[in-house]
């Protein structure tokens, strides 16, 4: 599918159209998207692999050049043209479909909402939560104080707040607020910044005209607050969900103001506001009348996080397996970062409860015994719902969709319920399109989509860790000291089990690998697994010899995490233990079979550094997973030699060698 988006000319206006691009990408992931964009705003899309072709446009060119441009567009034979300019390019571009131009509603709506409304007839879901912008903040120096990014410029002088007012506010923030002030803007804003700096008594960093668009976005992303006129940085910060204090004069914040819940607008409403006129008989007193003290107090309101609810109670629901619960921790971390004083409870299945019980991010774990024979079946389910209702939660984040997961918070009367749209979404107050089956990103990113839908920013680096208590560490030490090893040698763990045959590398190859490790490397090998895998452990114990340790069925989840922390590496199938090991910082080497979308390493690989994946493509057009008709050739194609070689490269070289 080929799509052309005709967007606008000014940088700020183009940023307001980015939800259109994000929605198209999510609804048509295989489509080739071209963009017609004003020359000054083309850098928004440069070097972006999601955009196939950038066509710069200057509206001042003559009709001959416009005709050539139109002819080239017609030659492309686009399937869909979304013309946000509502120009001749969309009208005569020859596409099979285009957006409707006329709007008879007469309502005052935000420009971003107006633009994305152009897609209503072409997509099932409109995406306003996830930002199209993906800034890389790694090269931005860490802030030593609270970073406030300031954009005092504007393309139009009528939207500029006075320089002396800016200087007063920023001096107050630098002094009593202990803030680091960073000025941004283009070369045309450099004089405004220079004037403000000349009026200030505190130091500040001037980056006006010194950053690319991507660098500008990265600086904004690192800010705790952005103070700006009605200009492009306002819309960039709002897209990135960075708190903004937007200063408005003659323009209308209902159309151009920030939409993020933690942002504020500072304006002085006069009898003529908003006039939206370039010429004003009152010399735009609406900006002059807005004093520095009012803006300073609003800045403090954001920085002191007065939006932070008091005594907030949050319920996180994740009623599936071990790995799924661990991969939800980055979402829990983002919630904790946003609401540091909140009471956060996590509802889980009983057998995963031990994983996060006592975790520093979590105040309470609530086991839900809903499975066959559990105490929350039948009437017990009503008692459980009543117990949840008594806790009076304010928000429920449902990170895995199911009828049960959505129904319990609904019946418990939790006022805000956010989850995926795939199972009984009418029980939710806000829902996110469920694209997990597409497998286009990691499972942890899908769970973060839920918290982003509530306006919570994900952290720059995903936090996923399982703390190991001294008690569990002592238990594991005691187990190892009772073995012939004495607990002193390096350990490579192997988990040969999995919940589905389409995930299981042949046990004979795991055995061959274990023998080779013990023969050629200075490591002992331990087999791990749950109680259901004891029989598998007996096979390794019988065939592997006395140097191989069988721990299947002997460790609970907390002890397993403590044991993995003692290991140099884990070799495993695609199963829960790989995520337990990754969460305690142990290297993992995971063997994948299935290449079905949503089941592949893209979504399910271990999160973090020092993790490797081996997967073979044996030419299956459609992966049947556990219904495989060719005896899991993808798994059999993985040779012991390849796994051993990859392990050698992963392990510390200082200990490699034969003993």
Overall description:
The chain contains 26 helices and 23 strands. The strands form 4 sheets. The protein has a 6-stranded parallel β-sheet, sandwiched between helices. The protein has a 6-stranded parallel β-sheet with strand order 14-13-12-15-16-17, sandwiched between helices. Helix 6 (163-175) packs across helix 7. The longest helix is centred in the first third of the chain and has 14 residues, at 63-76.
Offer a concise description of the structure.
The chain has 659 residues and is of the alpha/beta class.
Helix and strand topology:
Elements: E1 2-6, H1 11-16, H2 18-27, E2 32-38, E3 53-57, H3 63-76, E4 80-83, H4 88-91, E5 97-98, H5 111-116, E6 146-151, H6 163-175, E7 179-183, H7 190-199, E8 205-206, H8 213-221, E9 225-229, H9 232-239, E10 244-248, H10 253-256, E11 264-267, H11 285-288, H12 292-303, E12 313-318, H13 322-326, H14 329-338, E13 343-348, H15 353-356, E14 364-367, H16 379-390, E15 395-398, H17 403-411, E16 416-420, E17 430-432, H18 443-452, H19 470-481, E18 490-495, H20 507-520, E19 523-527, H21 534-544, E20 548-550, H22 557-566, E21 569-573, H23 576-583, E22 587-592, H24 601-604, E23 611-615, H25 633-636, H26 640-650
Parallel strand pairs: 1-2, 1-4, 2-3, 4-5, 6-7, 6-9, 7-8, 9-10, 10-11, 12-13, 12-15, 13-14, 15-16, 16-17, 18-19, 18-21, 19-20, 21-22, 22-23
Helix pairs in contact: 6-7, 6-12, 14-18, 19-22, 20-21, 20-26, 22-23
């Amino acid at each position: 599918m080929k799509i052309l988006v005709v967007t606008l000319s000014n940088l700020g206006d183009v940023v307001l159209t980015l939800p259109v691009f994000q929605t198209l990408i999510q609804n048509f992931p295989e489509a080739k998207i071209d963009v017609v964009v004003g020359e000054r705003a083309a850098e928004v899309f440069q070097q972006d692999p999601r955009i196939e072709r950038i066509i710069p446009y200057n509206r001042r060119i003559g009709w001959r050049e416009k005709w050539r441009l139109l002819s080239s567009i017609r030659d492309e034979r686009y399937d869909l043209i979304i013309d946000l300019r509502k120009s001749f390019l969309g009208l005569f571009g020859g596409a099979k479909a285009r957006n409707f131009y006329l709007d008879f509603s007469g309502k005052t709506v935000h420009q971003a909402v107006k633009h994305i409304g152009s897609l209503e007839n072409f997509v099932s879901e409109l995406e306003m939560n996830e930002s199209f912008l993906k800034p890389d903040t790694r090269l931005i120096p860490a802030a030593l104080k609270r970073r406030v990014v300031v954009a005092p410029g504007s393309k139009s002088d009528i939207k500029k707040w006075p320089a002396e007012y800016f200087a007063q506010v920023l001096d107050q923030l630098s002094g009593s607020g202990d803030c680091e002030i960073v000025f941004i803007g283009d070369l045309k804003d450099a004089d405004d910044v220079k004037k403000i700096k000349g009026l200030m008594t505190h130091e500040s960093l001037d980056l006006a005209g010194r950053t690319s668009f991507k660098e500008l976005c990265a600086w904004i992303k690192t800010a705790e607050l952005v103070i700006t006129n009605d200009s492009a940085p306002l819309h960039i910060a709002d897209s990135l969900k960075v708190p903004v204090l937007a200063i408005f004069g003659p323009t209308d914040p209902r159309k151009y103001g920030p939409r993020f819940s933690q942002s504020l607008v500072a304006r002085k409403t006069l009898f003529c506001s908003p006039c939206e006129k370039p010429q004003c008989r009152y010399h735009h007193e609406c900006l002059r009348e807005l004093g520095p003290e009012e803006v300073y107090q609003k800045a403090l309101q954001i920085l002191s996080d007065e939006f932070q609810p008091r005594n907030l109670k949050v319920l996180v629901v994740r009623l599936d397996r071990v790995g799924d619960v661990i991969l939800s921790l980055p979402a829990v971390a983002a919630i904790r970062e946003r609401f540091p004083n909140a009471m956060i409870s996590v509802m889980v299945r009983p057998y995963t409860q031990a994983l996060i019980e006592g975790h520093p991010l979590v105040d309470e774990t609530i086991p839900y015994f809903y499975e066959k024979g559990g105490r929350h079946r039948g009437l017990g389910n009503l008692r459980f719902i009543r117990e949840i209702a008594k806790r009076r939660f304010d928000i429920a984040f449902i990170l895995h969709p199911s009828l049960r997961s959505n129904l319990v918070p609904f019946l418990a009367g939790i006022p805000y319920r956010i989850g995926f749209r795939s199972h009984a979404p009418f029980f939710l107050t806000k829902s996110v399109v469920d694209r997990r089956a597409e497998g286009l990103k990691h499972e942890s990113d899908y769970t973060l989509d839920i918290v982003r839908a509530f306006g919570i920013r994900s952290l720059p680096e995903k936090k996923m860790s399982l703390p190991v208590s001294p008690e569990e560490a002592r238990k594991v030490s005691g187990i190892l000291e009772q073995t012939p090893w004495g607990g002193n040698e390096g350990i490579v763990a192997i988990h040969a089990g999995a919940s589905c045959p389409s995930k299981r590398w042949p046990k004979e190859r795991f055995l061959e690998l274990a023998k080779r490790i013990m023969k050629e490397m200075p490591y002992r090998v331990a087999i791990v697994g749950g109680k259901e895998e004891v029989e598998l452990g007996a096979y390794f114990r019988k065939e592997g010899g006395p140097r191989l340790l069988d721990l299947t069925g002997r460790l609970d989840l907390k002890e397993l995490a403590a044991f993995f922390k003692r290991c140099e590496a884990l070799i495993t199938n695609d199963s829960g233990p790989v995520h337990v090991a990754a969460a305690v910082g142990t290297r993992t080497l995971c063997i994948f079979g299935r290449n079905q979308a949503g089941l592949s390493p893209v979504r399910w690989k271990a999160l973090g550094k020092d993790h490797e994946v081996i997967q073979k493509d044996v030419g299956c057009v459609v992966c049947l997973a556990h219904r495989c008709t060719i005896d899991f050739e993808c798994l059999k194609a993985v040779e012991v030699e390849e796994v051993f070689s990859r392990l050698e490269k992963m392990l510390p070289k200082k200990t490699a060698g034969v003993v």
